[in-house]
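Query protein
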Amino acid sequence: MRAVVLEEPGRLRLHDVPPPQPGLGEALVRARRVGICGTDLHAYAGNQNFFSYPRIMGHELAVEVLALGAGVEGVSVGETCCVIPYLHCGRCIACRRGKTNCCIRMQVLGVHIDGGMREQFTLPADKLLKADGAAPEQLALVEMLAIGAHAVRRAAITQGAKTLVIGAGPIGLATAQFALLAGADVAVMEMDAGRLDFCRRALGIERLVDARNDAQAQLQSLHAGELPTLVFDCTGSARSMTAAFDYVAHGGTLTLVGHVRGDLTFSDPHFHSREMSLLASRNATSADFSWVIKRLRTGQIQLAEWVTHRATPQSILRDFPTWLDPAAGVIKAMLSFD
């Protein structure tokens, strides 16, 4: 059975590993599609939080159920599902309050424990979600979309709210998508001209800010001299996250969706004078996943242009390093085991 293993930063290898058997409450699944996340790219580069080596990456997953262990209900052999890759304890203070996305003992597939870049693996069957009629490639994008949906729900967006999403990578695009669905007046800030063009073409966003040129002046010109009341930083860049404090209107909210290794600093007088709210948004809950699936079923999310690069288990060893280069124009890369 083939598995793509990140042995250490900068070194991917294809290994042959024995097929597992499902235990109590588990399902044996076959990987159909694996979305490549910024987490995977950062891990390859050696700068991902919460990560250890060697590791089988892959947490954006579409899988086919092959076999079921004892005690499994609600899913059947042969069904294609997406995966909630967050294994929470169910006992800590966060879990008891329904915030399973930030469980104290969180284990994320492909980050803390081995993930889905392998032909077959087992996981708790209650982490499988059916989405009848959705293609495997769509299902592999659900986790990414759910992170954006969670961030938008966390910030409590209201109709017409002046909103800025910083960073037009996959998570930023997902956040912008759900901010639009919530009725916000959305602008996107990005350094890459190709990604700004993607926002216009694929999401219909016309309020675009080129982060390379006086971003604050551009922002104020969009809203008659005012700044946005809701700002999401989805970059995973300490420099961008620090600068984001300057883009929030008085009384507004900054939500940090990305994260970095190390500390962030900000001016307390600047922060205090604006009575700014600062939020972190981590992962997503099962409710967020269900919300995304519902939006896919009703056709409110169109994903045809999102997957720009594809690979097989053999070609990913060659292709993966190239995806770190912005010149490659990657929006979303996808690994196929079919």
